[in-house]
């Protein structure tokens, strides 16, 4: 049987999602605990990688397993949460068709980047602090230039490893919230390092270092050299992964779930 | 001139509020940064101690200083936030009459204890996780028995160091919030370790280990031996310190301030 598992994790302590030799990654911990709870070796595949220090308030992975007879999915979730380290949690496990794929079937992903403009000692690990309020209008004018299909080479971390750099961006904008701002970007796919480079460059717009028109020119240049520096990992959350209707139960939607929120409430 | 400074801090990294030899405390960091920003040695006095690992979303301290000519209070706040480590922040500095006292003039203090009943990887450092939902009604029945003036010897950490154990409790109760619960207790004063022992014992009521009537009997016994074990420090926040009208500006009220909230929003 194939299963989807819905996860949230604090990236602070982990070298990203993906298993790498001799490093502590979220995938390593999840596979270790799944294998322990299900009493069989489990390999997982995530909807996408998150880099070192990046959080996920909603990550979806798949794996194949035979659940021991009589063991309900909700019981697996409960036992898994007891086994997992405190910075990783799961809320939902459900069976999917045998060829369902956490990565290839994902239709859209949403990332959020959290900025504080009022010093907040409790969100240090989960946001970027700016001591001046950025120009949100200018940042949103720049962000709007990404809506549609564009080659994001300018905002990719490295050449290589990707077939192409075209992403279709459905939503990109900043929203005020008490004491800070959240940037939300929803697209069919993301290239490596994209959100942190986009946010870093938008923050340069917000500080008045470059204009919204210059941001658009950087995007259209398809050249990595002009983008700003990457925003730090601690403000970034993978916050939603969407699948075709019917593949994932309604209950998986992150709306209103406290640990699926971009930041704790 | 005497000043009140309003602070918030994440207690995770600190051995409580009060300066002790050879340990990292919040007071030590605040005095170091105040002395640096004001260019004179500064000694502070807090409204009360917080123990190792306990947070404050609103702590008030006083100190005496001559502000350099032309240096505005808001500028001191700005510079102080730049100097302070990320887990400590200030929002307000204001002059008070020369004999105003952060501890003796405080009329009420409020503590909050945060519990999660849904696993939340982002609030591990700021809450206690319970994997079963406690009986809130029973806990609130027990909590109500503390309203009024009682000798809290049963819920004090150690005998000694206090003149008396009588506290007048104005509010004590649990409130549901998404994914968890908050216990709020407001009193004229607290004895050492009181909130953690009260919460630990209330959680025993919530698990059905003791009844609300037994909780009340423990309180009235004025004996430390019967109380439950102390709830862990990481869920506890000093969340408000109140003074007589006029001593503290309206702006100091924690309502709606993101980092004055018991937990990050």
UniProtKB/TrEMBL annotation, chains A, B:
Isomerase in keyword set: yes
Keywords: Isomerase, tRNA processing
InterPro entries referenced in this protein's UniProt entry, alphabetically: PsdUridine_synth_cat_dom_sf, PsdUridine_synth_TruA, PsdUridine_synth_TruA_a/b_dom, PsdUridine_synth_TruA_C, TruA/RsuA/RluB/E/F_N
Catalytic activity: uridine(38/39/40) in tRNA = pseudouridine(38/39/40) in tRNA
UniProt domain Pseudouridine synthase I TruA alpha/beta: residue ranges: 142-244
CDD domains in the cross-refs: PseudoU_synth_EcTruA (cd02570)
GO terms for biological process, alphabetical: tRNA pseudouridine synthesis
Enzyme active site: 51 (nucleophile)
Residues annotated for substrate binding in this entry: 111
Record GO terms (molecular function): RNA binding; tRNA pseudouridine(38-40) synthase activity
Domain of life: Bacteria
Keyword Isomerase: yes
Pfam families named in the record: PseudoU_synth_1 (PF01416)
E.C. numbers: 5.4.99.12
Family: Belongs to the tRNA pseudouridine synthase TruA family.
UniProt subunit comment: Homodimer.
Known function: Formation of pseudouridine at positions 38, 39 and 40 in the anticodon stem and loop of transfer RNAs.
Protein name from the UniProt record: tRNA pseudouridine synthase A
Primary gene name: truA
